[in-house]
Amino acid sequence: MCARSARTLISILCSLASSVRQHSRIPPVSSAILPASQELARDERLLWSGIPRQGLVLSPTDAFLIPFSLLWAGFAVFWEITVLSTGAPGFFALWGIPFVGIGLYITVGRFFTDRARRAGTSYALTSQRVVIKSRNNTESLPLVALSNIGISERSDRSDTLTFGTAPFPMGFLAGSGWPGVKGPPMFEQIPEARHVYDQIRAAQQAAITSRAV
After folding, report:
1. Is residue 71's pLDDT more than 90?
2. String of DSSP letters for 176-195
3. Looking at the predicted structure, is the pLDDT value of residue 31 above 90?
């Protein structure tokens, strides 16, 4: 029975990896939502807009998170099977149910939560600020206040720009769909991130110079 459970978990992971390969893509900038287009001030210009990579996506942190989540889910399933097969009191079976639920989420569910989050997210760079728009929130970061802009580049060109830092492990887990994690503001998995980075720096310098005049 334990071997069957292990085979089931492996099958789920293989199906997930296949889905990632089929559905992961970087959309063209022309398809992007323009979150700041209706919010621009009179002297503000839209310089760039885009959306994060769509579909199911694996991040570098999944090299650690996937084995950990499989161990968690495997132990939770083993616990439930053992309790049910040995006729232990019902309390022990009930005790294991939340852990099975958590295991299912961190093994499979978080990928779909992350996909839905990115599907409702859009970005914009204006002559005065960086805008990050989600379904229920719009975050606006003035260019003159940005002091730490980082760039994380990947071989598939789905790079990420971060604005500020987050303490460990929040920064490490950012963008993984892990429950309870909120990383720094970011342009997550966008094409041509190096070009956008250069645009931000140029716009930031122009904004600082304009303010000083």
Report:
1. yes
2. TT-TT-----EEEEETTHHH
3. no
Closest CA to 164 of 186, 180, 142, 181: 186
Range of weakest confidence among 54-68, 83-97, 166-180: 166-180
Which residues, 6 or more positions from 48, have their beta carbon under 8 angstroms from its beta carbon?
29, 124, 125, 196, 199
The domain tally of the chain equals 1
Nearest partner of 148 among 127, 173, 165, 171, judged by Cα:
165
d(CA 153, CA 157): 7
Query: Which uninterrupted H or E stretch holds 110?
Result: helix 110-119
The residue type found at 84 is L
Residue 188 is part of which domain span? Answer: 2-21+30-53+60-212
DSSP string, 35-99: TTTTT--TT--EEEEE-PPBS----TTHHHHHHHHHHHHHHHHHHHHHHHHHT--HHHHHHHHHH
Q: At what angle do helices 62-86 and 90-104 cross, to 10 degrees?
A: 160
Give the span between the Cα atoms of 196 and 198, in whole angstroms: 5
Report the largest interatomic distance among the alpha carbons of the chain, rounded to a whole angstrom: 79
B/e letters for 77-95, b = 16+ CB within 10 Å, e = fewer, are bebbeebeeeeeeeeeeee
